[in-house]
Design goal:
By secondary structure, the chain is α+β, with helices and mostly antiparallel strands. The chain has one domain (4-62). 15% of the residues lie in helices and 21% in strands. It has one helix and four strands. The protein has one helix at 41-51, and strands spanning 4-8, 14-16, 25-27, 58-62. Strands 1-4 form a two-stranded antiparallel sheet. Strands 2-3 form a two-stranded antiparallel sheet. The protein is globular and about 40 Å long.
Length: 75
């Protein structure tokens, strides 16, 4: 099962559920974004459409790709 997380390329923050419930919020630390891990690209697209602004430059990170031969290239 894939594991995706949404990160703002503009700020480095991660989209995660609000601890008190309700709408997702942006958090600075990855360990606080655990509930933001999504396994469905349709849900990812919905979250990006509903909670990301264009100036967030949202990027979807495949957590299972990190540290593998298919890892993201260094910029």
């Amino acid at each position: 099962m894939p594991r995706y997380i949404i990160q703002s390329a503009a700020t480095g923050r991660f989209l995660a559920p609000c601890p008190q419930g309700g709408e997702p919020i942006w958090v600075q630390l990855l360990h606080r974004a655990g509930g933001g891990v999504v396994d469905d690209m349709e849900r990812v697209a919905q979250l990006v459409g509903d909670y990301c602004e264009p100036d967030d430059f949202p990027q979807v990170i495949d957590l299972d790709r990190l540290g593998t031969p298919n890892d993201y290239p260094n910029d």
